[in-house]
Amino acid sequence: MLLCMISTLTEDLLKLNQNYLNISTLNDEGKEVSNIQKNNLLSQ
């Protein structure tokens, strides 16, 4: 029973970690896009 609990906890942690990585990637991409948009506005 204990092993079962530990394995589900580990799975949950892995999922959380994956979600966090996805969010970080999205934030970075968003920053890049906004920088490109700023540059486009400045160059007009």
Structural commentary:
The chain is mainly alpha-helical and 44 residues long. It has one domain. Helix content is 95%, strand content 0%. The model has no long low-confidence stretch (mean pLDDT 86).
Number of strands: 0
Largest sheet: none
Instruction: State which percent range the strand residues make up.
Output: under 5%
What is the typical, i.e. mean, pLDDT? 86
CA-based shape: rod-shaped
Summarize the structure.
The chain is mainly alpha-helical and 44 residues long. 95% of the residues lie in helices and 0% in strands. The protein has one domain (1-32).
List descriptors.
single chain, 44 residues, mainly alpha, 1 helix
Secondary structure layout plus pairing:
Blueprint: H1 2-43
